[in-house]
Design goal:
107 residues; mainly beta; 8-stranded antiparallel β-barrel; globular
Length: 107
């Protein structure tokens, strides 16, 4: 079962919205990584809170079944969890440019 960790909308530089979990409600920005120089580096950088603290990265992946590109996120911040959280961005049906951040325990 997938759990929504928040919602974001597309922007010119990535995505913007909010992480909204039981113990946390924080603004979030997912921006294209303009400094990416190697394949292993993230395609996106993830920032949260009023101070825009960097809390993770995002990588463009290709879905095995549909062949569509999606963004796989890794979030790491003690306010979220003691361990890394893995999530994927998925489009919200009927809401163009709107995406849900879905917890992914297997990524």
């Amino acid at each position: 079962m997938a759990n929504a960790l928040g919602y974001v909308s597309e922007t010119k530089t990535g995505f913007e919205g909010a992480l909204a979990m039981m113990n946390l409600n924080s603004p979030i920005r997912i921006e294209k990584n303009a400094e990416k120089a190697e394949d292993g580096q993230p395609d996106y950088r993830v920032f949260a809170g009023e101070t825009s603290t960097e809390i993770g990265g995002g990588w463009i992946r290709k879905a095995k079944v549909s062949g569509r590109d999606y963004v796989s996120l890794t979030l790491a911040d003690p306010q979220i969890s003691a361990r890394k959280i893995y999530a994927n961005l998925a489009p919200v049906k009927g809401k163009k440019g709107r995406h849900v951040i879905l917890w992914n325990p297997k990524d």
